[in-house]
């Protein structure tokens, strides 16, 4: 039985056909351009395979409220030409199979759970620090979903007193994404990736913002794992700094038996940059 | 069939016997003193009734991890004589019936859900702004519980730039509880309840801290209701100020269809000061 999977991102669509045990048999990467051009290539790829179900992890925000007629629609996104496009409906109509959609970061969280931690842990949080900041939460083995997917990238944080740069979020002067996303780093500091890697002061500030964001989630969920993904997380010094800042913030206040150390709690993705694609496969498997 | 319920607080224990439909037949209030004296009175009250199950909402932190041998134990609490006391075990052994325990604020959240909103809504958050600050989260009709109950009172917040008072939290210089709890208001401003009610500047700051705390939860859970309880919430001007500050923070960023207005989202408890007692009854009912 074949499962289709799409990681639909703002710059590229990764498409794959996999077995239900998660072995990828064929995959392709399609550049994200116009809706028509991109979707035509996506449908062409899948047309060669008799897939039984399809899972999608898509850039957001997306309407995931099944009682809303916009269910499966990409909402107001900075990629204007994709706004108000119902990607779920198109794929369902064309492929004539069950399709399950969630956000890319939810898919990453679910991929890490399903193909990484499922046998040992049921509660984990995946935070992506990329162009934007988002989070997916696996709670008791399922993706947490209220009336909307989590929007943790806009949590209000405590600004570093020496941080005089403006937030890059058009809505919030001091939110996680406005202070710490990839775009924020680029616009605020105007340094290359390599230049930034030499600026320990700025990396520590970045680590502190990330630590604040995940600390608030840690206090709320008491999870097994907090996984830090996304392009910014490739800065090698960042993960150790995040752990240090987290330790300082917690200041020995709050631990629980299930988590033995901050090193065990805060980790990199097991599936590297493929968490979302594997998550989409897992969603497809669950739909079968 | 009779259900027993206890709201175990740091200053008093409210005990009740109710029918399974939630009608309280008999109740009493016992002052919280030593463990022995308090528990003797509690057991004496229940000894006259053939209760089938007991629900408890207890001041925390409590070990709620059922795989931990300390399950049901009050952990390291400022009320030192109650620390490391397993209140669940005592009640189970003495009353010889199923006993369900959770925190007082979890009980409040569950009471508001079970006897207030159950028929319409499945996702709500109860935040208590009392001596301390805590939160209980009902997600899909159940209390959210990772490896520990939520500890949202210690989320890191953005401090008001004019707030030069020290945090009263021994662990965090800028956490929700350290900046905005009843103790924090008392120690930091040294004003009576009446004096504070005249200080619109301080009430607005308080409202902003509360708005930040609940905004972070709103972004994460997209709930139907956020209920503000606890002694500090009795300040009449506070709720309108919280809504105003919440609106300013959100700055038109994020809404979802299920919630029509901030007035509908952020509300006072339906069960007034009895949310936790009714929640304890509901827990008892669920155990039967």
What can be said about this structure in brief?
The structure is a homodimer of 288-residue chains. Chain A is of the alpha/beta class.
Radius of gyration of chain A: 19 Å
Overall average residue pLDDT of chain A? 96
Biggest sheet, spatial arrangement of strands of chain A? 3-2-1-4-7
Number of helices of chain A: 10
**Anisotropy-based shape of chain A:** globular
Q: How widely separated are the two ends of chain A?
A: 9 Å
Query: CATH first level of the largest domain in chain A: which class?
Result: Alpha Beta
Largest interface: A-B, 43 and 44 residues
Q: Provide the CATH topology of the largest domain in chain A.
A: Nucleotidyltransferase, domain 5
CATH architecture assignment of the largest domain in chain A? 2-Layer Sandwich
Helix content of chain A: 25-40%
SSE topology string of chain A: EEEHEEEHEHEEEHHHHEHHEH
**DSSP summary, beta strand count of chain A:** 12
CATH superfamily of the largest domain in chain A, called what?
ATPase, nucleotide binding domain
